[in-house]
Amino acid sequence: MRGPTVASLTGLIVLAACTHFLKASDSCSGELARLQEQELLLKRQLQKQELLLRRLQLMNQPGDVNDARSDQVRDTQHADCSQVYSSGLKSSGLYRIKPSGSPSAVKVYCDMSEGGGWTVLQRRINGAETFNRSWTEYKDGFGELNAEFWLGNDNLHFLTTQGNYTVKINLEDFDGHQRYAEYKNFQVANEKDHYRLTFGAYVGTAGDALIGSYQVPESKWASHQGMKFSTYDQDNDNYRGNCAQEDKGGWWFNKCHSANLNGMYYPNGHYSASTDDGVIWYPWRGWWYSLKTSTMKLRPVEHNTGLTDQVTVSPRAPS
Ligand SMILES: [Ca+2]
Hey, what's the signal peptide range on this chain (predicted)? Predict the structure, then answer.
């Protein structure tokens, strides 16, 4: 979305004062603009400081959510985490896989919950990692697989073009509420086609942000269907400006977005800024609420959860 920020309290007070001095209206509106700018600046400084504080707190938390063995990687020749799961390895963690088409093995985080077999492609949990990254960084991937990361656009391409994949997006706000969105036929094209995104039918509880059709006139610019990937240093969007630069993350921007899970991390949810640059899923919490956590993960549509033959689970499966 592109539009004005919420009316500021300071502005209203000055405006009220100004109406009593109509003759001085020119200087009043100038003063109002100056104060509004100052207020926005202060809010940004506050948000930056809160984020910095949050990062410092995280650095002092040994182990965090992961156990001591969390950096152990299990080598496999499987094409994705669904095959890893089907082979009997049913604990969440780090695995090396080899998607067909990929020139080399890829280290991934396999999420074996929710039926198992999910290859995680993105995670935001605390703002420890910056997502305002270059084209090359998004191409190759960045971050920590046990914490916050982007798996890499080349890997996304190799994974999603070897079959028919479902993406599941799990979201949480700062009140502990959780929602999800699922899309069939999630596919990312190659770099030559700027990692163009296509996806199929939606199911879920978070709302269909990717198609952007919650308001018909908006779908033209809010839809992510068929959009190319953009970063601050490679503008492939439909906006006269640079969405990735304004919204501070790489994504399949249109003009600009109704979902941007790679935006700025705000530690309190509600935020104000000159553009809607938070971690956004518009149909759920709108443009001016930045979500607490986001996970995006892939699984073949035909994944077998194995729920019918649970008795065959190997007792030696790592836990
Ligand atoms: Ca542009």
Answer: 1-24
